[in-house]
Amino acid sequence: MTDALVSIDMGGSAARLAIFDRKVMKMEDSVKIDLGAGTEPLEAVSQLAGVIGRWEQARKGAIHTVVAGLAGLHDAAGTITTWPNRPAWNGFPFREAFTSATNRPIILFDDANLAAMGEYRFGLAHPVSPLLYVVVGTGIGSALVMQGDVYEGARGASGELGHITVDPNGEPCPCGGFGCLQLYASGRAIERMAAAKGLPITKASDVFRLAAQGNEAARRLIQDSIRLLAIGIANAVRLLDPVSVVVGGGMVSRFPEAYRSLEKAVQQFLGTLPQKNVQVSLSVLGDDAALWGGLAYGLQQVSIKNKEMEGVHNE
């Protein structure tokens, strides 16, 4: 298969890769790579390159388009500028390192932006605009899709829902702020707060398991976490006035029942505002949203490049 596109979702705890046939828009294969907090960026890039190399060998054809969504911010050169969940990666020239390891270019975008595009293009039965997409995983992010394009802001840093302040007297965040939503409603936050309460857990999923078994402390912790998430989403709805909200990410995909109460909670915090009946639904694509978004964004960027080349040839 030569007409292939690889999509990469670089999250806070793992990387997921998928290879698509661009002509029929079909996912052919996918791989998950666990990346611990101590994983060096060059090691991660090497593992990505290894997977792509094996796919090329199996398909006996070059892969020309690679798209990656990063959970951290990067500049125009593809250097990571800020990654709160991976501070050791700040300053790492991701694009340069990837190109050196694979001998091919890579298109970089924010992971929440890709997930939003994936849901807009392939998840929703009927695309709506504006669409607010919220991702809840190791961290928290969001993106606003308008007429098929993601609003990126003046500095390319829009959608940082995880870093809005929900407690001005709260804990310091690696982003430099205080009391950020991500410190109370993300998967890593749930782990940290549960451990502080002395609960016998090693990961966030253990907290949900304890809650399901009737542990009151675990149940209350999850309830408080989702309540703060609802406040953050309600504030975003007040500001952006989307037609609907879709919530996805690893935490939501693994524990959908716990997050089904979000719509009611968000609507309660909106009070009597015109947005009070905004629809809040869970992602249809689940963990694959960003991978499908990589396909959508990659096709969009290739189309733009082809049109630019046509313009040059016609001059």
UniProtKB/TrEMBL annotation:
Q: Which Pfam families match?
A: ROK
* Family in the record: Belongs to the ROK (NagC/XylR) family.
Question: What name does this protein carry?
Answer: ROK family protein
Which lineage is the organism of this entry classified under, starting from the top rank? Bacteria, Bacillati, Bacillota, Bacilli, Bacillales
